[in-house]
Amino acid sequence: MDYVENWDFERIIPAHESAPIAATPEDLKRAFHFVYPEGTFEGELFTPLSGDMGALDSLNENLSKVGLS
Fold first, then answer.
1. pTM of the entire predicted model
2. pLDDT tens across 38-58, in order?
3. Residues 6 or more apart from 11 whose CB is under 8 A from it?
4. Which phi and psi angles does 23 have, rounded to 5°?
5. Cα separation of 12 and 24, whole Å?
6. Does residue 62 carry a pLDDT above 60?
7. pLDDT at 66
8. DSSP string over the chain
9. Angstrom distance (rounded) from CA 23 to CA 60
10. Which one, 6, 12, 48, 64, has the greatest CB density within 10 A?
11. How far apart are the C-alpha atoms of 49 and 37, rounded to whole Å?
12. Cα separation of 34 and 52, whole Å?
């Protein structure tokens, strides 16, 4: 994601919302702050609950078991 922050854009086009959305690289980083290691982004909006990431954690665990992660 860090390389996207260096792009100069004013809008994004999501796959599942009305488009385009006025957004800057900083806005995009805020939206996906949870992918950054803790303490690397100031002004966190929220911290995902453990249950919010459960399906992805389970998928990652299963992929790891079969050597695909």
1. 0.45
2. 655 555 555 666 666 788 888
3. 20, 21, 22, 23
4. -160, 145
5. 8
6. yes
7. 94
8. -TTGGGS--SEE--SSSSS-EE--HHHHHHHTGGGSPTTSSSS------GGGGHHHHHHHHHHHHTT--
9. 30
10. 12
11. 15
12. 11
The average confidence (pLDDT) of the chain is 77
Which of the four pLDDT bands, split at 50, 70 and 90, describes residue 69?
low
Residues 6 or more apart in contact with residue 57 via CB below 8 angstroms: none
Residue reference for tokens 């919302």: 17
Residue 58 φ/ψ, nearest 5 degrees: -65, -45
Token look-up 């995902």 returns 48
